[in-house]
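Notebook B, p. 112. Complex prediction, attempt 2.
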Amino acid sequence: MKYRIDYQLTHDIDWFAVVCGIPIHVASNGNILPNEVDSKINRQIQKRLAEIHLDTCDVSIGQEVTNVLGKSGDLDFYLETFVEYASMGFVSIDSHKVLNERGSIDFRPVIVAYPSNRNKLIVPEAIGIHLPILQNEQHKSQFQSQLNLSNLW
Amino acid sequence: MSRNFSYRIIINRQSPTVIVKEKCQYIRRRVNRIKNHSTIYDYPSCAVGCRRIKSNELFIETSRAHTDYSRTPALKTALENLGIIGTVSYGNRIGWCAEPNAARSVIISFSCGLNQLCFTETIRPRTLEKIAYCKNCKNVFKL
C-alpha cells in the first residue's frame, strides 16, 4: 500500500531502498516517494531499525552539506537523524528544496552522511526485511548521476 | 502514522521564532521517543507560528492536508484565488502549508483580517533549519 499523497506532501518521511546495490535512507522533506516504497514495509523497516541494535560504524559527512545548510541552521541538529542512519550502514540522503526559475519548488537529493568504510554498508539481511529496490529509471539515474553513489569511497 | 502538533502559547520576552524552534525540538524528541516504543510517527515537513499584530498569543501549526477553511471565509477566498484548495500551485498544494493552518487558528480566535497577521520564520522540525515561504503563502499573506 502506498502512502497517501496528502501524507507524503505534508510529512518528512524516512524511507529506505537499495539503488545500484547501495542501501540508502532518504528524508523525504515533503517530496513524493518512489512507487517502489510501500508504506507498510517502510514502517516495518523503521520499527525494526529502532528495535535492533546494529553495530555502529564511523561516518563521513557529505561535501555539499555546508552549502545546503547555509547560515540559517545548526549543523549538529541538521546532521542528527542522518548520522544515526549512516552509522547503521545506510547512505543517508536529504531531499533539498530549491526554487526553480518558475518560482516553484524542485527537490534535489544531497548526500548528508555515509559510512566511512564501504564494507560497513548494511547488509539488507541484517534487518530481516527486504528493502525495496528502485527500478524506476528516472529515480535510478537521479541517484546515480546526481549523487555519484558508487564513487563515494 | 500522523499526529497533529498544534500549540497556543503566551509570549513573554522570547522571540516568537525562538519559541517555534523550541516546539520543533519538542516535536523531534516526541518523534524519537515514540520511535523507541516501536510506534512510528513521521516528522511534519514544516512548522510556523502566527499571531495577530500586537497580540502576545502565538499559534504554532504544522503542514497538514484537508483543513476546513469554512469558518474563515476571507482566508478561504484568498486561497481560492490561487486555485482550488488541495490542487498544485507553484509546486505546493494550496492550503496544505503550515502558514494557512496557523492563520486559520488565529482568525478563528480573534476574528481578525489577513492583514493583521504576522508570522514567524518557517522551520523544518527534523533539522530546525529555516524554510523560505512558498510562493502561494507569499501571495496570500503578502509576506
